[in-house]
Amino acid sequence: ETAVFQTPNYHVTQVGNEVSFNCKQTLGHDTMYWYKQDSKKLLKIMFSYNNKQLIVNETVPRRFSPQSSDKAHLNLRIKSVEPEDSAVYLCASSTRGRNQDTQYFGPGTRLLVL
Amino acid sequence: GQQVQQSPASLVLQEGENAELQCNFSTSLNSMQWFYQRPGGSLVSLFYNPSGTKQSGRLTSTTVIKERRSSLHISSSQTTDSGTYLCAASSGSWQLIFGSGTQLTVMP
């Protein structure tokens, strides 16, 4: 049963455009995450939010920015996309955020930058 | 640095055969987790297994912290088991470090 929802499922855009991906979780978790999965299936964390506070910010380009209105939502905005941004972006959530509980993932948003 | 190495990269089995997937992680990591990803699908948590052995149906996960390794055993594989299996570990902070995945194909 899906409890982490992502939109859109798929997005095609051109270099330089701005895109925004949405994520909502209905699990009552207090920590949410964004991961990038490249063509080789390698998953790397980009951001995590705990109680609306950014607690992990990996060395991602500044054109990426997370946006959260409450603990159930964590959106990802990309200003001026680049070709290397083509990937699957996965949203996840967990309780307590200390990896003592498993993370639940959304279905992903596949981005293709032309 | 923090590393998670997963093997094999790919595995092809005949239906009914068993599979053994391995994950090795660096000393700064712990709290091993295993995930399954269907082709084009989202990640599904299989096990949160920081140490010891856990079983769920045909799946068994064993983590030996002292040896910095974790394994996922699939018995009597089925075609529906095909997909990507990912292990991940954490450093006790907020982030998971993922392995590169094992692409499993089970032939009928």
Report the helical percentage of chain A. under 10%
Largest interface: A-B, 29 and 23 residues
- Can you count the beta strands of chain B? 11
**What summary fits the major beta sheet of chain A?**
7 strands, mixed
Q: How many β-strands of chain A, per DSSP?
A: 11
Any idea what the radius of gyration of chain B is?
13 Å
C-alpha end-to-end distance of chain A: 33 Å
Which consecutive residue ranges of chain A, at least 5 long each, have pLDDT under 50? none
| Rounded Rg of chain A | 13 Å
Summarize the helix and strand pattern of chain B as letters.
Answer: EEEEEEEEEEE
The helix count of chain B comes to: 0
Oligomer: heterodimer
Strand content of chain A: over 45%
Q: Return residue spans of chain B where pLDDT drops below 50 for at least 5 consecutive residues.
A: none
By secondary-structure content and strand pairing, the structural class of chain A works out as mainly beta
- How would the global form of chain A be characterised? globular
Question: What is the general shape of chain B?
Answer: globular
Number of helices of chain A: 0
Main beta-sheet annotation of chain B = 6 strands, mixed
Helix content of chain B: under 10%
Structural write-up:
- The complex is a heterodimer of chains A (114) and B (108).
- Chain A is mostly beta strands.
- Chain A is 0% helix and 55% strand.
- Chain A has no helices and eleven strands.
- Chain A has strands at 4-7, 10-13, 19-25, 31-37, 43-50, 53-57, 64-70, 73-78, 87-94, 104-105, 109-113.
- In chain A, the strands form two sheets. In chain A, strands 2, 4, 5, 6, 9, 10 and 11 form a seven-stranded mixed beta sheet that branches.
- By secondary structure, chain B is mainly β.
- In chain B, 0% of the residues lie in helices and 59% in strands.
- Chain B has strands spanning 4-7, 10-14, 19-25, 30-37, 43-48, 52-56, 59-64, 69-74, 83-90, 96-98, 102-107.
- In chain B, the strands form two sheets. In chain B, strands 2, 4, 5, 9, 10 and 11 form a six-stranded mixed beta sheet that branches. A five-stranded antiparallel beta sheet of chain B has the order 1-3-8-7-6, with no helix packed on it.
- In chain B, 37% of the residues are buried.
